[in-house]
């Protein structure tokens, strides 16, 4: 309870600072009034999500420390729709099949509990479990309908028989969120990925996990949105 209260208080303070300091923050990066106006709206949204985000961070830590699932109900109270979990690592001396089974069964427990609070359990394609055949094996065991896959746009997506084949392995278990990096950086075939999302008629959120540090971050975000919209339009024209 104490850590939860401290976390929420900290999130409130951050939200207030962001709200009142939006213009000075943006002005440090650009003097374009139009960009500042758009940036204010983005920062306001970011400020508003600090409360549920702070709660998620705090209660995730509690879960790791005590295996207490009640934090999922608290996420529901503050308006969240789900949580992201990571399979990550295999362990020396333990057969991969054993770890896959353990992860899958654990996800079923989380999924059943989270369903009572409308909290979707989103398994991110991450770590040593990033290969999509491994993720499919996990999800074959984690068959609770409230357990979903969070696509993560990893290099491993291109291995084996390629992106489309790996995408199809798990597409029927996609959750409400998916991750991409900068759409115009690197060799990942994002246009092909967007074509697949459009073909599937994906209804969730495609979230940008940016890794670069552009001089004008607001302008960079707008650029990414423009690229995204163009890629979606290209995908729609192919359907």
Q: What keywords describe this structure?
A:
single chain, 239 residues, mainly alpha, TIM Barrel, 2 domains, two-stranded parallel ribbon, globular
**Mean pLDDT across residues:** 87
Number of helices: 9
CATH superfamily of the largest domain: Divalent-metal-dependent TIM barrel enzymes
Based on helices, strands and strand pairing, what is the structural class?
Answer: mainly alpha
SSE layout and pairing:
Blueprint: H1 2-27, H2 33-48, H3 50-66, H4 71-77, E1 82-85, H5 96-115, E2 120-124, H6 132-141, E3 147-150, H7 163-170, E4 177-180, H8 190-200, E5 205-208, H9 217-238
Parallel strand pairs: 1-2, 2-3, 4-5
Characterization of this structure:
By secondary structure, the protein is mainly alpha-helical. It folds into two domains: 1-80, no CATH class; 81-239, Alpha-Beta Barrel (TIM Barrel), CATH 3.20.20. 57% of the residues lie in helices and 9% in strands. It is built from nine helices and five strands. The protein has a three-stranded parallel sheet. Strand 2 (120-124), helix 6 and strand 3 (147-150) form a beta-alpha-beta unit. Helix 5 crosses helix 6 (132-141). The longest helix is centred in the first third of the chain and has 26 residues, at 2-27. The radius of gyration is 20 Å and the shape is globular. The model has no long low-confidence stretch (mean pLDDT 87).
């Amino acid at each position: 309870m104490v850590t939860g209260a401290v976390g929420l208080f900290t999130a409130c303070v951050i939200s207030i600072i962001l709200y009142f300091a939006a213009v000075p923050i943006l002005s440090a990066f650009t003097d374009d009034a139009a960009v500042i106006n758009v940036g204010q709206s983005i920062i306001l949204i970011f400020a508003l999500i600090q409360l549920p985000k702070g709660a998620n961070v705090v209660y995730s830590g509690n879960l790791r420390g005590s295996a207490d699932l009640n934090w999922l109900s608290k996420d529901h109270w503050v308006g969240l729709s789900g949580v992201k979990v990571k399979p990550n690592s295999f362990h020396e001396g333990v057969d991969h099949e054993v770890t896959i089974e353990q992860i899958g069964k654990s996800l079923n427990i989380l999924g059943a509990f989270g369903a009572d609070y409308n909290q979707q359990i989103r398994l991110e394609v991450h770590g040593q479990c990033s290969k999509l055949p491994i993720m499919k094996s996990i999800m074959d065991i984690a068959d609770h309908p409230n357990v979903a896959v969070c696509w993560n746009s990893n290099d491993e997506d291109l291995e084996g028989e390629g992106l489309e084949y790996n995408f199809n392995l798990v597409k029927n278990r996609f959750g409400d969120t998916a991750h991409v990096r900068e759409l115009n950086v690197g060799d990942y075939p994002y246009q092909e990925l967007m074509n697949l999302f459009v073909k599937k008629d994906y209804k969730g959120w495609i979230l940008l996990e940016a890794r670069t540090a552009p001089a004008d971050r607001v302008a960079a975000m707008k650029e990414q949105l423009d690229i995204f919209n163009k890629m979606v339009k290209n995908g729609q024209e192919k359907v």
